[in-house]
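seq:
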Amino acid sequence: MDKLRALEYFIATAQARSFSGAARELDVSVPAIARLVSALEKSLGVNLFERTPQGIKLTADGAAYLDMCQPLLRQLTVADEALRGAASRPRGTLVVGCPTILSQRCIVPWLPEFHALYPDIHIDMRTVDKPTAVDADVAEVQVLYGWPDQPGLIRKRLANTRLLICASPSYWRTHGVPARIRDLEAHQCLLFRDHEGTVIDFWEHERDGQKESASVSGWLVSTHRDDILDAVMNGQGVARFTDLSIREPLRRGQLVPVLLEWESRHSPPVNLLYRSSQRRLPRVRLFMDFLAAKFRRMEEEREPELAVHITPERPDWYRRRHGRASATPR
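struct:
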């Protein structure tokens, strides 16, 4: 149990006189508040609140505990104000968690600019593919693809992506360019297995309101996008990549996207995840604002033919995990 956060949740609940009021104040979910307050009560061996159908109120033990915690709250407020005052010269180590594809293709190339702006902030990059990864707990900021959902973390969308169907110029010359989505079933499609173990072999796209899908297959499946990318650039097959992760191969002509009139509803957005309390730290707030501006500029610089017109939505296979996306009932 995070004792400091539990005290924060307890004090906010006592002041708001409800779990929902505390959740609004701290910008977290009601279950997250209730769960951590209950864990605090269990660790203390007393009930801090009386829970009735009409609401909650402090017990005698809870009122006494609140009085003892108030000085701590004041000390935290003083510390926050001191940190805010140091924002003109922020310092410290910032732990950032994200998958390799995002760190290599987007974030790390931007870091020299951030370092020039804030030379006293040191960046500690950790490989994190999902909120429950080993290093996720120590990360103050996570940047993740998809639709991650973790109690206690705020999720903010940084950018929408577009899944592009790509192959090398030599592959298209040899095997021909598909005329529509279902034609991909006749091609060697190299597949990505996501961090939950699902092979994404069901590709759904839409054109002018018309939906079409393909259950694709090929000789290579990998959890590493770079394995797929290298094989595709070497002419070994077709794959889907988010546009933000292949900007350089597209510019150099190593990858050629096709079927651009067809767009996927399931293109994974890029998300920022953080705890509400972390945003009070200048180094965290500045880095989050920096990333938001960078991703916003990337979206603005998209070529017109790669523009995103469809709001992404979570695919069915994401909700109900199977070994293969094509195995999800429809």
